[in-house]
Write a structure and sequence with these properties.
Number of helices: 12
Strand content: 15-25%
Order of helices and strands: EHEHEHEEEEHHEEHEHEEHEHEHHH
Distance between the termini: 47 Å
Shape: globular
Largest sheet: 6 strands, mixed
Number of strands: 14
Helix content: 25-40%
Oligomer: single chain
Structural class: alpha/beta
Strand order of the largest sheet: 3-2-4-8-9-11
């Protein structure tokens, strides 16, 4: 956010925001007048550092306040097409992902296969509704994963799942419905009705176009991890696929983090560092961070019944945000531990009806960044300006010649539809969506 004329510049180096939740026994507070907070710039603290500080804070808080860490339950719904319809043959990747999440993370997993015996659109709607109904809860995380073909219609603002990139792959006499289903219509129970956090993982072409029509509720975290960016295809199942990198990255982060949770942003970065994912990075979209809370990955301990007893079911009645003005850029591990313990002890000593104290974010005010950058810019201009004036006219007039060597990359089939098939099926499946012509190596294998 850029500074505007009249913005108040505050002369301190950092601001940490602490968020507290009051339970049912708290008194109502009305007509409170608070001083306007300083305008804050985008935090210069990296996402990885933020997540580590938040994880450390939560770990100490959970121990001091004797509350469970992570989610009460995490459920995963894996969506694919039946083997006879699945042109991409993703069964092996799906099986490996399901085993990893179920055995290593102790998550509840279900695999749902769409067929054409009945309406695929209604099947998808029912599967999502049943999933939310079964696993819904304010302390739960719902993860939905899809692998297959995908397209986006700009006219109808619909993202659609497809089993094939061309014509149906089973005899026409057995087909009652087209092998396609609208995700935009089916996802409403997740965006409107789910009480807990939601993560949607999409391994399909044009996956990021889903954000053009999504409108989740404001009361929780909703994240979208896409194999492809806006208007871009992605690789088919195999060594270079998004799901292969996803499985590898989850295993690596699980080994590195141990009992410390990691966030989806770390997972996204790890996938993009996978050597076979270049040059098409995955994309993470985050919504509804009213209190800047992110989804955390952590293996579940103990049985579900035991975890249910650990979670408090007192309803949150109010929130209290406290802003701490810091004289340092960042807090170290010792400072975080001592601060979290001190706040817990203060709440206990005063019998304050606090349910939890959450670390939200660490920001830096614009004033510090502005003046620091201005000083560096003036020093650099003075230094290089003097050096430039001392150069001869002949030397100043020379032009640099840059040579660029093209990087040869291994070829891999993508999930996108071929231009010929797109033109033939545009009126039935893609509408008037303007597809960018692709090179031969990016076409799907028919």
């Amino acid at each position: 956010m850029e500074p505007h004329a009249g913005d108040r510049i505050v002369n301190f180096e950092g601001a940490a925001i602490i968020h507290t939740e009051a339970n049912d026994s708290s008194k109502a507070i009305s007509q409170c007048h608070m001083e306007e907070a300083p305008v804050l710039s985008e935090s210069s603290v990296t996402d990885e550092t933020q997540s580590k500080m938040r994880a450390q804070w939560n770990s100490v808080m959970c121990k001091e306040m004797q509350v469970p860490q992570g989610y009460q339950n995490v459920a995963v719904l894996i969506i694919k097409w039946t083997e006879e319809l699945d042109e991409l043959h993703s069964a092996d990747e799906v099986r490996e992902l399901d085993e990893l999440l179920r055995e290593s993370f102790n998550y509840s997993t279900e695999i749902f296969e769409i067929d054409v015996a009945s309406s695929p659109k209604l099947q998808l709607k029912k599967a999502i509704l049943d999933f939310v109904y079964k696993y819904n809860g304010p302390h739960n995380l719902l993860i939905v994963y899809y692998t297959g073909h995908g397209s986006y219609n700009e006219l109808t603002k619909q993202y659609v799942f497809h089993a094939s990139s061309t014509e149906p792959v089973i005899p026409s006499s057995e087909i009652r419905y087209k092998a396609s289903a609208s995700w935009t219509d089916a996802e409403k129970p997740l965006t409107e009705d789910a009480e807990g956090d939601v993560l949607f993982i999409v391994d399909a072409c044009f996956a990021s176009n889903i954000v053009k029509a999504i409108q989740p509720a404001d009361s929780r975290a909703y994240e979208l991890l896409c194999a492809s960016s806006l208007d871009k295809p992605t690789e088919a199942p195999g060594p270079q696929s998004f799901t292969t990198a996803l499985i590898s990255s989850l295993k690596t982060l699980l080994s590195e983090s141990g009992d410390t949770p990691f966030i989806t942003k770390q997972l996204c970065d790890k996938i993009n560092l996978h050597p076979k994912r270049f040059p098409r990075p995955c994309q993470l979209w985050q919504f509804n961070h009213q209190y800047h809370r992110t989804i955390e990955w952590l293996p579940l301990k103990r049985t579900l019944d035991e975890r249910k007893k650990e979670f408090s079911h007192d309803k949150t009645r109010a929130f209290l945000d406290l802003r701490l003005s810091l004289t340092v850029d960042c807090l170290d591990e010792k400072q975080i531990n001592e601060l979290s313990k001190a706040l817990c002890n203060a709440a206990t000593k005063n019998k304050t009806p606090v349910r939890s104290i959450d670390w939200q974010r660490l920001h830096h005010p614009q004033g510090v960044t502005i003046f620091a950058n201005a000083g560096k810019a003036l020093a650099s201009a003075k230094k290089y300006g003097k050096r430039w004036r001392n150069r001869s006219p002949t030397r100043r007039s020379r032009k640099r010649i840059h040579s660029e060597r093209r990087l040869e990359l291994p070829k891999s089939p993508s999930r996108c539809r071929s231009p010929e098939n797109n033109r033939q099926r545009e009126h039935t499946m893609l509408g008037a969506y303007p597809l960018t012509p692709l090179s031969g190596e990016e076409h799907c294998q028919s």
